[in-house]
Amino acid sequence: MQSILVVDDEPNYQIVLSELLKDEGYEVFTADSAIDALPLVHNTDLDLVLTDMKMPGMDGIEFLQKVKEFNRELPVILITAYAEVERAVEAMHLGAFTYLAKPFSNQQLLASANKAIEHYGLVRELRRLREEASPRTGFSGMIGKSPSMQMVYQLIEKVAPTSSSVLITGESGTGKELVARAIHARSKRKDAPFISVNCAALSEHLLESELFGHEKGAFTDAVTMRKGRFELADTGTLFLDEIGEMAPRLQAKLLRVLQEKTFERVGGNQSMQADVRILAATNKELRDEIERGSFREDLYYRLNVIHIHLTPLRERTDDIPPLVTHFIEKSGKSLGKKLDISLDALRLLVSLPWEGNVRELENTIERAAILCENNTITPEDVQPEGNMLPSSHQWSESLELNQFIPEHLTLPEILNGIEERLVREALEDADEIQARAAEKLGITKSLLQYKMKKYNLQRKKR
To answer: Which of these, 449, 52, 164, lies nearest to 288 by C-alpha position?
Structure first.
């Protein structure tokens, strides 16, 4: 049943309009003023607003603007006297669907209402179809059709309806928080809060206060009682990003919450309860952290009931073209441009290692959208900053390559052979400590691990 809001300060006229619309099968809500009508606009699923132009306090045009701020697509029909037709035309420019000048017939009113509601239905249907057509919009903006991403979508669908804890792993920039939000959006807790905390962004004491809250006077700056994220997320979901950075003392406190569902605020002794689902994420290998003694094994098993791993972008290159298309559209809307990308630029983007993953790709496209000429992104616009450094190749100018490289080898074979040897020697020189080897090579640890996998260089036990 379609719903119509009738706003008119004249009770008799309001009754007449309401009864006419009810007789046609519409559900009708009424308000005596624009001020009283605004809560109904915000809290009711309406299909049409029918409002008088001249009302005390907020008039029809100002009310129209308020409605459009809340829902740009919701149709508004203004009722006006002949003397106000000029203002009604002004209202049309502000987004009114149409206006009815008094006196008008019942048939005119019903025809206009039916046309507005039909138009609104088409607009909403078009929006729904666009959302379905976009790549996995239903997964909180996640984009990708590669086998690894399909597996992630399947896991999200299976785990979302449960209350199990989920550990989301993957390199920085792979979209771990998007996965957490998608799980929450499909869970029974979707109407409750989704609260996110970055464990790496706060010191140990600040993180403790952030998670569990504090009582007044608990420490120097605690001038008032403050609720923590567990209380704020009650009946909802708490996402703990970079859980591998949490101090051991806080890990013990978190473990108790997971086991007993109770905690105390900092400086307090009253036991608090919170029904919270925990989703955690990390770019660290927590098993290595357990071996080092920096992460509790019992907490790991509590968090790792379900494990979702996000593959690096360089290992799912099929997802790069749709991601590029999405980010170009996003940047184009932001800049008010109709952007395009050359085939050579797209080929370059697919070939790059993307150490920063999807986040780095998005930043690259955003920068290219601003710098490109003629609204077309070219290879020059998406060159990695490191590739633009001057004289980075001068050391090789005097090198006699023919003395060292057999003629029959192709360029990929030459480059792969040199790279494999450099990686192996860096690991040997660093005593198999990957962080040290990566620093020696001038790359990130995650990229080093990718190259070790590429060349089948097994991790050696130290």
So the answer is: 449
